[in-house]
Amino acid sequence: MAKKSEIIVKDTTIKTTTLNGIDYICITDIARQKNTVDPNGVIGNWMRNRNTVEFLGIWETLHNPNFNPLEFEGFRKEAGLNAFTLSPTRWIEATNAIGIFSQAGRYGGTFAQTDIAFEFASWISVEFRLYLVMEFQRLKSEEQKMLGWSAKRELSKINYRIHTDAIKNNLVPNEVTPAQASVIYAEEADVLNVALFGMTAKQWRDEHPEMKGNIRDYANINELICLSNMENINAVLINEGIPQGERLVKLNQIAIQQMRVLEENKGRKLLK
Q1: pLDDT tens for residues 59-94?
Q2: What is the DSSP string of 205-257?
Q3: DSSP state of 8
Q4: What is residue 183's three-state secondary structure?
Q5: Among 109, 104, 74, which Cα is nearest to 91's?
Q6: The whole model's pTM is what?
Q7: CB 170 within 8 A of CB 241
Q8: Is 182 helix (H, G, I), strand (E, B) or coil?
């Protein structure tokens, strides 16, 4: 499934998508910088250029094992002639190209792999290309941050299973009902919440009634790393039979120490 997003470049909305692991940028949106009425005509003029055809062919040769070089040679010989025209659809169908594709619908347009899109943007405006590259890099950086956050959130969930197993084996008597057991699990979850965030889940919900989810859904990456570590440590402390009050003090001390280290490490990376 394609992953879609948008960036704003000089007040222009540019659609982006990732398909089969390849990043694409909508060059139809870029073409509107030159002609808002007929952006497809702008793309057609760019593609009939000999340098463009050679660039597209070399890119496909490097990245596409199913590329048809014979059709490419035919286009290259004709490129630049007055009667020569070339559309994205014709290029794709004739050469089995993957660097460009067209899509209909509200999110439609002609999309080009980033190298190709940046080349097209240079043809439109060198200044616009520089802004486009900057915004696209910012987008990918944000996506990497979110990917890291999601991975840490999943790790926290896995470690929480270890945590709940320790609670089940050591703190929950066999005679209690599931409802009673859930109270014990919630109390232990709040031990971690108080140690790290300084408040229980209920206190957070009372302070943020407009927010969906729970306190951990709004944690940053460093907090999730610390929370993951604390879940493992608390499981060990539970197995050792240490009372909840003592565990809370120990976990709070660990949280303070680990967050200080993580934030200092983040600061050093920013300085670099």
Answers
A1: 999 999 999 999 999 999 998 888 899 999 999 999
A2: HHH-TT--S-GGGG--HHHHHHHHHHHHHHHHHHHTT--HHHHHHHHHHHHHH
A3: E
A4: helix
A5: 74
A6: 0.52
A7: yes
A8: helix
